[in-house]
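My main concern about presentation is that the manuscript never shows what a single data entry looks like. An entry of this sort, consisting of the sequence and the corresponding backbone structure tokens, reads as follows:
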Amino acid sequence: MSRAAPRSFVFLAAKPGGGRSLGVKHARSERALAEILRRERLVLLRTWKLPGWISTEAPLKNKDMLALNEQLAQLLARGVPLVEALEVAESVVRPQQRPRVERMREAVAAGSSFADACRAAGGFDVVTIAVYRAAERTGDLAGAASQLAATARRQIRIAGKALTLLLYPLIVLSIGIIAGTFLLTTIVPTIGASLADAGAKIPVYTQVVMAVGLFLRSNWLFVLFGVALLGILAMLGRATLVRLLGRLARSTPILKDVILTSESARFFTVMAALSRSGVPLADALGVATNAINHPTLRKQLERLRVRLVEGGVLPRLVDGVEALPVATRRLLIAADRSGDIDSAFETLADDMSDRLEIVTQRLMAALEPLLIVLLFVMIGSLVLSIMIPMITMSTQVMG
């Protein structure tokens, strides 16, 4: 039986102790919304249905996946029925995700499989749904949830390293831009004008910097409009911009190692989750390959999967994935010969996460002096535009 897609509602509800509550929630219907509010001890008074193009439900984040799967793994392993486990899991996810978990519980109670309920609820990626579907066939949904919780934990670690890597240069560059703008629009024109009134000879470079600063100060509204316009153009062409930046990053020393290691860690994390759940190797490769974005690694893995389906032997095909380190390929070959490929994926996922820590620290060590040089160029060039006429004036006075 088909179920209505969730919609977004603006609601007005009465509180138990008096007063009103206004908010936005996702539900399949007004009746379902009233039931959700009743559980929060609110009485629905009025609703307004939002248009479909702004009714997007908050996506599932790795923290939600971690909390949900950890709770399911603990309860299902102790024999708690899936419907009851989902009712408990509803309380551990973010409030924005509780309607989604409730829809999953209702679908399972109505007879749907758990994988189908996740797909109908939305927000779950193809890897998670594939793991759940395979686990339902093997009867080990608790083990699959535990494996997905470990996968989410690894992905949170990887995302945290990426955030740290981006945050530091962004903060430094933001401080440099703010300080440089202040110097350019306020300090340089003021001191330059004072030196000119004192009879100092103003070099051409200082005159150009002063002119730029005065122009920015006099036309700041147009400058802000231009920056906003560039931001809008960047948003509209973000696919092309991201592709160009990705190509540049993959050709930059040290940074390309970070990107390849991060993609490899993601690939082996997904493969570990799929293989532990009983997904055939060829199918797992098809799902895991779609989870990575590195073009070279993805192309080589797709070629490996095609040849594996055509009857190739994995130990011979692995050597063709030259984007992976030699030690990684040798470990996969040895694991396949010993029949322990599942443990190899798990081990490689941990090893790649540890290696990502090392290459990230190496990149941060290289970024620090580069950022210092960049700040010196940004701020030092403005300071020099002031110092040059001051030194010239003091020399004339001494003479």
Remarks:
- The first strand starts at residue 7 and ends at 14.
- The mean pLDDT is 83.
- The chain is about 75% helix and 5% strand.
